[in-house]
Amino acid sequence: MKLSYREYVLRLRHTFAIARGSVDTKQVLIVLLEHDGIVGYGEAAPSSRYGETSDTVKAFLGRVKLEWFDNPFQLESILSQVDSISEGNYSAKAAIDIALHDWMGKRLGLPLHELWGLNRTMTPQTSFTIGIDKPEILAQKIEEAEQYPILKIKLGTDDDQSIMSTIRMATKKVLRVDANEGWKRKETAVEKIKWLEQQGVEFVEQPMPASDLDGTAWVRERVNLPLIADEDCVRYHDVPRLQKAFDGINIKLMKCTGLREAMKMIHTARACRMKVMLGCMIETSLAITAAAQLSPLIDYADLDGNLLITNDPFIGVRVKEGKLELPDRPGIGITEK
């Protein structure tokens, strides 16, 4: 098996701002895994929140020894070895996982959802993310998101009430809120969530810092909106301990190491009677389509990273009136533009 990669700089339609900061571009790496004339595609979209950069991804890929294995179908052995190289490096590991799954689907001539026995018509609607911004830009973003029936609103600053008021004046759509760990005090979180209960919000994602699970549990006892774990939930072994503080989890391929781990997380969450959401970073249609292959299994989707950029190099999952439409091509199902 031969492993190589390409680097891309993705350009955002708007400056993308959350409670931790803002970006105008995003660097990703496209991984190519070649074996027996078939090329599997993967993607790493590193996040500084989890200690990754494009340089750490490249360094990690340089340590991967796929020549130790006979073929990509030895998925469990390969991914176990890759995971053991070092801690973290989640998106780098995810890129390899996605490429292996893409290769297998192409070899078998089946889309991943069909290989897993999933019904492609059972995909959910995805939310469309509205980043923190000035009122006039928020209004423009709402107008541009007309075709999406669910909006995900980024909060976690001192301007939260102004942002929500601006958005509520512009639309009556279903809103989901993501604070990205922005509310540092539990009393603040309770106050803001109680106010959001009056704004037609469906749920709140990661209200408190991931380091304060007890604080989040305290908040949950005092509010009525469901709470969804994001930064608190990285890999499958995190899921059981989150039951005391959250009603559901947000799985992202770039923080959980890929599709195989994501599947484990879905089943673990179900065993814990928790809701399941699939989210993303700023990514191309490659990684978004890979995640979407799992979407018939979940409750909520926030798979819009490819919709926020202007130079997506791939064609994959489509969105029609918010609903994810999976391609029927083998593997992940993407093609290059």
Question: What this model shows, in words?
Answer:
The chain is α/β, with parallel strands linked by helices and 337 residues long. It has two domains: 108 residues, Enolase-like, N-terminal domain (Enolase-like, domain 1, 2-Layer Sandwich); 223 residues, TIM Barrel (Alpha-Beta Barrel). The protein contains eleven helices and 15 strands. It has an eight-stranded parallel sheet with strand order 4-5-6-7-8-9-10-11. Strand 7, helix 8 and strand 8 form a beta-alpha-beta unit. The longest helix is centred in the first third of the chain and has 19 residues. It is globular.
Record keyword descriptors for this entry.
single chain; 337 residues; alpha/beta; Enolase-like, domain 1; TIM Barrel; 2 domains; eight-stranded parallel β-sheet; three-stranded antiparallel β-sheet; 24% strand; globular
Helix-strand blueprint:
Layout: E1 2-18, E2 21-35, E3 38-44, H1 54-61, H2 75-84, H3 90-108, H4 112-115, E4 128-130, H5 135-144, E5 150-154, H6 160-170, E6 174-178, H7 186-196, E7 201-205, H8 213-220, E8 227-229, E9 248-251, H9 253-256, H10 259-271, E10 275-278, H11 285-292, E11 300-301, E12 314-315, E13 318-320, E14 323-325, E15 335-336
Parallel strand pairs: 4-5, 5-6, 6-7, 7-8, 8-9, 9-10, 10-11
Antiparallel strand pairs: 1-2, 2-3, 12-15, 13-14
Helix pairs in contact: 2-3, 5-6, 7-8
